[in-house]
Structures
1.
Amino acid sequence: MLEERNVEVILKKKGAEIVVDALLQEKVDVIFGYPGGVVIPIFDVLYDTKGLEVVLTRHEQAAAHAADGYARVTGKVGVCLATSGPGATNLVTGIATAYLDSIPIVAITGQVATPILGTDAFQEADIVGITRPITKHNFLVKDVQELPSMLKQAFHIARTGRPGPVLIDIPKDVSLGVLSNYEYPKDVAIRSYKPNVVGHVRQIRKAAEAIKSAKEPLIYAGGGVILSDAHKELLELAEKTSIPVTTTLMGLGGFPGDHPLFIGMPGMHGSKAANYALQQTDLIISVGARFDDRVTGMVDKFAPNARIIHMDIDPAAISKIIKVDIPVVGDAKNILAALNKLVAARKPDEWNKQIEKWKGKRMFSYTSSKAEIKPQAVIEAVYKETKGNAIITTEVGQNQMWAAQFYKFNKPRTLVTSGGLGTMGFGMPAAMGAAMANPGVPVIDIAGDGSIQMNIQELATISLNDIPVKIVILNNGYLGMVRQWQELFFDKRYSSTCLRKGSGRCKKCVGPQKCKLAYIPDFIALAESYDVPAFRAEKPEEMIPVLRKGMKIKGPALMEFVVSEEENVFPMVPAGKPIDHILEG
């Protein structure tokens, strides 16, 4: 009888214990979160759990971005945990960011007890309803009996097919409920959910034939190449056929940035070579890329001469924006492996020579200065100092585009950036996740002085947890990308984009040379208040010494570079114009 009782004790688990056991069973080694009343039972179990680190962020949004950053650099599922109501809704921006970029995260939220659901109880929010359009799937667990299966399904859905965020909402009484016959499922079967990972043989053969007959083919690769670890297969295809390669922002690193066949990213701030090539090519071989409006510009004028092969694991992405001639649904790695066996070798020809002319000596350039620090020079210096052996995260805006243009991403999973949603405040928390996943690898957040302030409270998280994130702030005193649009398209009416003290009362900007308003905050003093070493460079000769000083710090460090205030990101295609209508500085 004693033995039978022991068996019974072992099989009994509370809901909160089941949640933590599921995380361990799914090989989760770190979660990012913020406690609150209804998730205290889960945090209480985590208190004694070994092999699972909990990072307390200072805002739930940062927890979601950190889980996202962890997932992007590892390919594993990132996990964040928040309480009900405002805790859960604070995750929304992070979940939407992951959704737009197809990043696998599981967001666990606490919920008020089931008997009071729908009564507008304290800190109740319908997070399942709120996140339905921005999650791959979500669950509200109403009975502890459902909990193991739903947790298993959540991880399975997040990581398979087109990856994406899954939310699981757990009421407090479910966390406290007891399951007497607990066993975590080994497998999962979900009716009507069977992602097709193997491309159709006939369609792959059609793609090979189209490549053989094309005169001016072009590979257009996206983040799907990185998500499916298809970079080696992509390189093989390009080198075998000598076809030039352009990658989207999300695809940077999926093909070596210093490879002779690489022609830069296309679109609004893409290279001239990539944009001209897309407009002239007679065959686009799209691999794991969607045709975002930042790439296509005016859709009716996009790639007017091209037939299009579109390889994507998500059938809903095919012909969603651009009509496709040869769809191939499946995992990019599998499709490319099959295609490489069929495709005929091709030598460089006149098309390659034309591409080289468009590329010129440099795909991106700027006017250097001895009087001011140029933001592009800072990015180039970061690349030179790290030799490309670093993970770069970015905020969003000019800093993001300069990082994409002037840092050569030669390996997959080395650029962590918010592409689809364009989330300011993403970079530093994402860097936290990336650094936790890759001890010993330099992780650098390229930030603007505006975007860094969106989640600057996370200086506390990196400081108290000694997460060795290096923060490079390009301080131009403005919300730079919006200011650039105001300069080019709104007659320099800098409405609400200057970040100086009292600037909200300025009716007309006198320009940085004449403006006497002080800048706030003092990033150096702010970082030091969080016990993060900080350094500032204001002159070109100070740039390299400050960068080296910050990089030598073992833990986190902040480096502020006061850069040219009205520097613009060029080339630029005005919104809604064809992508060969290029503005140059």
2.
Amino acid sequence: MHTVQDATKPRLSAEPAPLPPPTLDHLRALEAESIAIMREVVAEFERPVMLYSIGKDSSVLLRLAQKAFYPGPIPFPLLHIDTTYKFREMIEFRDRYTAEIGARLIVHTNTDAIAAGTQPFAVGTQRCCGLLKTRALLDGLAAGQFDAAFGGARRDEERSRAKERVFSLRDEKGQWDPKRQRPELWQLLNGRVRPGESIRVFPLSNWTEIDVWQYIHEERIPVVPLYFAKPREVVVRGESLIPVEQPFVPLRPGEKPQLVMCRMRSLGCSPCTGAIRSEADTVPKIIEELVGARNSERQLRVIDHDQDGSMEIKKREGYF
């Protein structure tokens, strides 16, 4: 039976509180914000591009871009910086999925550095990332004359990413200065750039890892199978499970590959990305696993810990 509350009478404590007015649910509010950011960039910049890392965040960005510009095609290309050390399953997924959705894919590699034998165990992770990721990214952006680059970084991932604004200014050399960031009060984004400057754009800034997986679940977005648990051949080194994929990964005395039930929580170059022990072989199980997680998804990414403040230093030099 429907009843009407008399506002002149005091409410009894046992009565239920009135329901709040209807609003967008959490995921749809995030989706709407991200789509608005993408549309503003396409309207405001001449040559935008999406940095495509093949991971779960990139998959969500792609779905958002499809929705933002539907029924037309995605109006900018995807740029993948290929170090040549990504997991084979990532490259297979990249080529198959981007072809399926009709996306324009640009792959850029620092071939000179690869030819010179650059790999993390030969030159160290800092120099390897500097050459195969940062240098390759800056060269790839310059070759395409791109003035705005979408990235899938989220503020909950890592402390330097928590400092980034949605529109993140890069100078003429592609470098980031946290002290030169522009205020974004009331969600007002400032896309003004001088000749040579550019903007990195992070539409997923306000998303969390669980938001991303819930959106993947709701939208049934395809992701690289490496995210799902199954027995994989790894080297167990303390808490790290190092995938056995690259022939140059050295084994320590007594170490030998073994099968471990595990999955990847974050994807990067195979020598520098550790797996986690897990039984989560479906998206709902991954979400359930994350509800109780207290560590960052990047805890086993070697490049985040190769020096103090590692990620911020890399970003200042022009990293993603």
3.
Amino acid sequence: MSIFQRSSRVLAIDGVAVSIVFLIMCVYFALASPYFLSPDNIYNTFVESVSAVLLAAGLTFVLISGGIDLSIGSNIGLSAAATLFATMNGAPTVLAVLAGVATGLIFGLVNGAFVAGLGVSDFIVTLATLSIGAGVLQVFTSHTQLTGTADSSFLALAGEKIAGIPTGVLITAVILLILEVALTKTPFGRTIYAVGINPNAAYLAAVSVRRTKFSVFTISGIIAGIGGVLLASHLNSVQPGLGGGYELTAIAGCVVGGVALAGGRGSIWRAALGAFFLSILSRGLQLIGVDPLWFSIVTGAAIVAAVAFDRGAQKWLQSTLRPVSPAAAATQNAQ
């Protein structure tokens, strides 16, 4: 096998083409702005991308199963509010963290109960909980000023450094590793892929489709709750509307990372890379002085370009590397 064929087969692997686009983008921003590779910028980029990466990772479970969870934006905002409210009122850090995770769990249980238990459309259910969560946060923050806490142990959750790495990033890395193993190395993970590819076939193969769907919405809710805890620790304040738009960022990150919206395809590391890709893009645009009014347009165009490049590269490589049958080869030689 030639070097070209070996390289082509590597590029045909899901996520590799997007990873190359990601590296090219980083090189461009590094050349365009002297601050892009500065320690402060790297630190801030990693810390601020934690929430989006976590949401994308949790959402990946739902997407691979063939569903959608739009409520994660309100989930992360309300979970952050519950966490900060608890610690501002004297609760130990452990209880404050549990309050945020429990809030996320409630979102997941409600979504899972309506989708898996009652058979209601996941789009409608999570759109409703998205609206309800946003409304509760508006009411809550309009009556209670969540301006921050002086509890250093709580603030250390996201802002402390271990060996120079922010604790929020370390916590996120551990969670991503656990989720990746659960999705790709366990029977439970395989049932999620099976349900996403063909729920009827999975049902005939004795897979509990309802239980699987309930589980993935619960996981998505819990991960969004953890994201809310880290977001509250990082910002140390919660404003009305916090979390708005996060669901679209997470979905876009998953799409860029190659997670199929139709289900049955994707991985945690690729979804995390896609979300981080968008964070780097946003930070880079700021550093090179792009007008913020153009951010949405440039970001949307970049998402389409990255996905098109990934899909196009895979199709071209697959057609190039497709084995030729002896009969076809003989025909080609005769011509």
4.
Amino acid sequence: MSRTFLGLPAAPPRAPRSTGNLRGSEPFPAAAHTELGNTQLRRNVGKATRTIRDKRLAVTGELPDWEELRSAGAAVKADVLARLPELLEQFEAAVTARGGTVHWARDAAEANEIVTGLVRATGSDEALKVKSMATQEIGLNEHLESEGIAAVETDLAELIVQLGHDRPSHILVPAIHRNRAEIREIFQREMPGVDPDLDDDPEQLAAAARTFLREKFMRCPVAISGANFGVAETGTLSVVESEGNGRMCLTMPETLISVMGIEKLIPAFADLEVFLQLLPRSSTGERMNPYTSMWTGVTDGDGPQEFHLVLLDNGRTAALADKVGREALHCIRCSACLNVCPVYERTGGHAYGSTYPGPIGAVLTPQLAGMHEQSHDPNASLPYASSLCGACYDACPVKIDIPSLLVELRHQHVEQAPPRGEAAVMKAASLAMSSAKRFTTAQRAARLGRVLGGADGRISSLPPPLNAWTGSRDLPAPPRQTFREWWDSAEGRGTIDEARRESRGGAQ
């Protein structure tokens, strides 16, 4: 018999709690209550989401095969997840064959250390960045800053968030909660050398950002990017964007470091045909992205001469192991579900506490980072941050059934959560309803609750642990008599006899 110890099967690890931005500091209801009090934020988010929503409806309606495209996108993503290990190996071999170096990161801490070491090897204390959800997820900017390296965001919205010492509140438009006047104030306060007479005209604001970033582009030797797609058969990566900053980052520095979640793969180059139609229409309401950059390894004398790819797990394998929840990994980060969500439209993104806000974030975040990593985990409240209206499912370009996933996560939360007052009340109700005698006794005891009712017969406040029920609704006060008591009373018998006489008269 072999002495080799093969170990015991174990669940894949979630994203670590101590690193990155996948967990807020307070539950969604408390955070949402604070955000709802910010009328300026609600006005800004509502206007922006309505505008994007209308544009999306117009351009998707132009395509007679839009539903077929959605089905094709969903099928490709399902195929990727079904054979992810095989495609990742193919992808690594293709990137390496074309001069790139592949690094594997199990979690945020490993990814941050790898990127920091690569930046430090260039001798630079500054790195350019193109908008990347993966690097936000792992808290790369904060880690680089702690290591004495300045990460400069080059996407205009990300730059606004960075200069404002703020947090992104939307997947696609991180500064959606800011208006032009607020952006001008941030630029005047934080941007070196900006015109003191800068007004809030969008062209002037963009010109100020362009001037600020141009000097960075010309001298910084290293850039960090994410990736919208990675093509397994060729080792090609792709970034789509609207401003041209991404193309500058991907071509001018000597060293390019890309951080990509392992679920961003597509099998073949031809699959881009599907996603480059789905993504721009769903995200910005445009027929195609203004800039689509693709790169495959390195090319002598052209573009970055050193290319590193960091493949990030950070809880994705754990999500993949969930037979129901793995569907969330189909997400292509278009944000269409955010723009149609009535909950997101009123609270904005900060209330979700995660890099991934909105309906897809309420599904993805608990799966990547868990819901029970700490007592009263804020992530446990995210599956309830939805009205389950289904608008997100209708808008999703790859047909992720987000409402069903939210219900499943609620089920998992109830199954895993420690016993609560609600469970005790339900158990007591079950016991009472299993016996006619006990049920009658319980009904009579419930009459004591009439003392809590107001003059209008409504109870507006219950003591703990039932106070959550009346936190957002009133409860009718218990009636003076039960239905059985009314049935046996003179009033009840008279009413029933009269109804019978009317019934016989109608029958004649």
